[in-house]
Amino acid sequence: MSDKQKTKAVQNGDAGAPQGEQPGSAAIAIAMFCVLLLSYTLMAGDRYLFPVLAADIRKAFGFSISTTGLLSTIFTLGLGLGGLPTGYLLTKYSRKTVLMIGIVMFSAATGLTTVVDGFLTMLICLALQGIGMSMLATSMFALAANYFSRNRSAAIGSCNFCYGIGGFLGPFLAGILRTTYGTWHMPMQVFSGFGFVMVVVIAVTVRPWFSETIHVAKALADSSGAASLKNRNTIILTILSLIHGLSMYGFLGLYPTFLREDLHYTPADAGKVIGFFGIGALGSILGGWLGERMSPKLVLSGALVSVAILGYVFYLPDLSMEAREALTCVYGVTGSSILYVNLAGYHVKALRRSLSSRGSGMFVTSLYAGAAFGGYLLGALKTANGWQFASQIEMSLLCVVGAVLALGLRSSEMSV
Questions:
Q1: Is residue 175 situated within a structural domain?
Q2: Which residues contact 19 (CB under 8 A, 6 or more apart)?
Q3: Shared domain check, 406 and 305
Q4: Last residue of a domain, one of 178, 213, 248
Q5: What pLDDT does 243 receive?
Q6: If we measure between CA atoms, which residue out of 299, 258, 289, 305 comes closest to residue 399?
Q7: Nearest residue to 197 via CA among 42, 33, 37
Q8: Using one digit for the tens of pLDDT, what is the confidence trace for 274-311?
Q9: Hey, CA dihedral for 11, 13, 18, 21, is it positive or negative?
Q10: Domain encompassing residue 231
Q11: Rounded Cα distance, 199 and 214, in Å
């Protein structure tokens, strides 16, 4: 290939295609991307299985509330730990290969949860599930950002959109399967089997000219932003990410258990309620757009105050199911579409462009470090003094503290 042809290939999104294989049309590329997005939707749905089924698993094994809470959120530890190894693997192997390994890992781990004999083995399975999810997610973002370089935000936004769809359908289907077959094993086995089916579909349909595209990025000069992680904005954002990880994943991990054990919701109804968080997460593209155009202080403080109020209301005993669905949807908007998306974005903007990967890494590490123990902390607080007390401490009080801290951000020191 001549230099002129290579340049044209880069401009058209064909760079990196293996020699001897001609790139296909944009329509074919989009069709292959849709196959991968289906696998991403599966991942999101798989992530919500354990919280919906936690009451059954707790009963079967005799786990305490705090132990169940830890199991509900430990996958996030694997999700955070899997980032660096996945980055290394992507330098050695193709994105398609790493992505498929990730699906195999989290699907196998999901299936193995139905045959474990106790706490430790289940903890290991759920942590491995998180590592597999990390491999899939990291590969998907790299692929989307490179092939669809001219519409990068839309491509990555479509991944978040599909995560929201999976977040709604996963717990809903888990509840239906649990009720229909009378066992918590069936939802796990169905999702595990579907994952292996997707591996075969991806292996057959996704071509290297699409998955391995590499664009030559234009050099961008650093324009403001801190020269290291030791700066005011990054320190504040790291604390906020820890708080948000604790509060959001504590809620997601144990709210279905509260609905089932204290309010006696059926598995299907509990899954339906928590699934509305996924509907709220569908607004992630709009949430990112607002974050780009408004003050970080206003965006983060406002969202954290909203979460604090929701944390106070969520565990009131007399709310109707419809009210709980609406409140969970609002939390999906504030917690996922606004807080999650913009914390990630502001971590990057707090640093110079050349340090953007460090900003992303700090976000993932801090948020998921808090998330891994969110369920355990909420469960321990509940055991001490009930659900309302636990939520008022972990969601309301912590988020009010976060809202005050967010006022200390300096947008003038962020990169342009």
A1: yes
A2: 1
A3: yes
A4: 213
A5: 95
A6: 305
A7: 42
A8: 989 988 988 877 887 888 788 999 999 999 999 999 99
A9: negative
A10: 223-416
A11: 23
Q: Which amino acid is at 106?
A: F
Which of 35-44, 62-71, 73-82, 95-104 shows the lowest per-residue confidence on average (mean pLDDT)?
73-82
Q: Does some domain include residue 237? A: yes
Task: Give me the phi and psi of 351, to 5 degrees please.
Answer: -115, 165
My answer on whether 331 and 200 are in the same domain is no
Q: End-to-end distance of the chain based on CA atoms, in angstroms?
A: 38
Token digits of residue 199: 């591996």
The CATH number for 230's domain is: 1.20.1250.20
3-class state of residue 94 by DSSP: coil
CA distance 41 to 164: 8
Give the number of other Cβ atoms within 10 Å of residue 242's Cβ.
21
Q: Residue 225: in which H helix or E strand, if any?
A: none
Which residue, of 213, 244, 274, is where some domain finishes?
Answer: 213
Q: Is 226 helix (H, G, I), strand (E, B) or coil?
A: strand
For residues 274 and 171, is the Cβ–Cβ distance under 8 A?
yes
User: 161 versus 408: which is more confidently predicted?
Assistant: 408
Q: What is the mean pLDDT of residues 87-100?
A: 82
* Prediction pTM value: 0.74
Q: What tokens were used for 263?
A: 């309010």
Given a contact cutoff of 8 angstroms between Cβ atoms, the answer to whether 288 and 341 are in contact is yes
Q: What is the pLDDT of residues 312-332, one digit of tens each?
A: 999 998 999 999 999 999 999
Distant-in-sequence, close-in-space partners of 359: CB < 8 Å, separation ≥ 6:
234, 347, 348, 349, 350, 351
Radius of gyration of the chain (CA): 21
Residue 410 has φ and ψ, to the nearest 5°, of -120, 100
Q: How far apart are CA 363 and CA 345, in angstroms?
A: 9
